[in-house]
């Protein structure tokens, strides 16, 4: 891991994501709590998450076509700048009657994010060596996990102040601009540059030509069909995404109705998850030379399933903090393991499409879960769906065993 910290380009990308993710976590936690607090409806909260996943279901896979066409670094800078601007209309919201604007902005932010994450994943092998890839993905998870600790603390503090939501929105917007600046400072070698084969003024049709987009999209899907390991990774990701969604939607109702906690308890839970993510990143980063990605997938699904079942069946805050922290470790194991395998078995020219299809599958699974959870949880309560999350993770363990079983250790 020390070699990665000497890699200027990687550190710039990592630092930008650390700051940006901190702003995002403060924003998303505030958004979830604010929506539920003023509506007292799981359906309203679920609808907010719904606007996050619909873009990925509609055109998430097609985004990969453009990620593979264009310079990925420039694309990430453009997306960050767009997201910084898109957040600003939230400053116009002054009452619950304008919640529709939050839904619209959430939809647009998620649409932009569809371009950023596949571009970042596809760019990673060009910034680090193949031997450092697993460690880089693990350290990258730290830039997501650490904000889980900082973001909730910021959100919990700022929500107590007048204009707290507006302060968080402005901070998140500035965090996107900081990320764009860090990516701008990354120095690309000629072999890493991917100039867009498009004349934006004279050849706009080449960008939006439906026939060409369709052919390139189908070509990317064919790569997935030809490789059994990719099919199994996609199946694993679909199950774990389906399992994680009820927890995202129902964590606030679980905290308030079953744990009988307040916003502080919710913040502690999310922070415990972040601490778990930090530990997971350190564990994978220090053992990447001895542990295979396939073993990480197996341990991640097994421990996450057990942790969720214990957490939701024994509603005691100290125990639930430990269990939710354990699932934070598991998410890092799954993210680092699957992300490493995906880029290792996929050619660079197809990585954007494969990663975007990976995201679309996750969004589709989350959309299915959101529809079911949002429509039934007001009647059934949060507990049945939360228990199902643990069972789905255990089911995913069986799929993990099928991914390169001969290379488990």
TrEMBL record:
Keyword match Cytoplasm: no
Membrane topology: Multi-pass membrane protein
InterPro entries in alphabetical order: MFS, MFS_trans_sf
Keywords: Cell membrane, Membrane, Transmembrane, Transmembrane helix, Transport
Subcellular localization: Cell membrane
Gene3D superfamilies xrefs: MFS general substrate transporter like domains
Organism (species): Dictyobacter halimunensis
Segments traversing the membrane: 12-36, 42-67, 229-251, 263-284, 296-318, 324-343, 355-373, 385-403
Lineage top rank: taxon: Bacteria
Pfam families recorded: MFS_1
Taxonomy of the source species: Bacteria, Bacillati, Chloroflexota, Ktedonobacteria, Ktedonobacterales
Protein name: MFS transporter
């Amino acid at each position: 891991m020390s070699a990665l910290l000497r890699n200027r380009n990687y550190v710039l990308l990592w630092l930008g994501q650390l700051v940006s993710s901190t702003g995002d976590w403060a924003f998303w936690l505030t958004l979830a709590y604010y929506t539920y607090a003023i509506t007292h409806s799981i359906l309203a909260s679920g609808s907010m998450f719904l606007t996050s996943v619909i873009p990925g279901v509609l055109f998430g896979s097609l985004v990969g076509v453009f990620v593979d066409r264009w310079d990925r670094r420039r694309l990430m800078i453009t997306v960050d700048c767009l997201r910084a601007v898109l957040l600003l209309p939230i400053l116009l919201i002054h009452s619950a009657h304008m919640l529709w604007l939050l839904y619209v902005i959430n939809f647009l932010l998620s649409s932009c994010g569809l371009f950023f994450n596949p571009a970042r994943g596809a760019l990673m092998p060009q910034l680090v060596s193949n031997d450092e890839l697993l460690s880089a993905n693990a350290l990258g998870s730290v830039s997501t996990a650490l904000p889980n600790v900082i973001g909730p603390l910021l959100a919990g503090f700022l929500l107590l102040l007048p204009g707290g939501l507006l302060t968080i929105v402005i901070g998140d917007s500035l965090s996107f601009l900081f990320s764009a600046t860090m990516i701008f400072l990354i120095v690309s070698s000629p072999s890493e540059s991917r100039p867009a084969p498009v004349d934006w003024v004279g050849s706009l049709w080449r960008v939006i030509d439906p026939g060409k987009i369709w052919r390139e999209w189908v070509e990317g899907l064919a790569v997935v069909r030809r490789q059994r390991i990719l099919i199994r990774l996609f199946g694993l990701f679909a199950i774990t995404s389906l399992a994680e969604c009820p927890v995202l939607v129902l964590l606030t109702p679980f905290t308030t109705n079953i744990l009988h906690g307040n916003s502080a308890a919710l913040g502690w839970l999310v922070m415990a998850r972040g601490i778990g993510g930090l530990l997971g990143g350190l564990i994978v980063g220090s053992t990447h030379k001895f542990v295979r990605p396939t073993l990480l997938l197996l341990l991640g699904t097994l421990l996450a399933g057990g942790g969720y079942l214990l957490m939701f069946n024994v509603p005691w805050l100290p125990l639930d903090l430990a269990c939710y922290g354990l699932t934070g470790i598991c998410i890092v194991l799954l993210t680092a393991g699957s992300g490493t395998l995906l880029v290792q078995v996929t050619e660079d020219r197809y990585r954007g499409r494969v990663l975007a299809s990976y995201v679309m599958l996750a969004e589709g699974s989350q959309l299915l879960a959101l529809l079911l959870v949002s429509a039934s949880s007001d009647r059934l309560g949060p507990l049945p769906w939360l228990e199902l999350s643990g069972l789905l993770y255990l089911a995913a363990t069986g799929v993990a065993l099928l991914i390169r079983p001969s290379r488990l250790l």
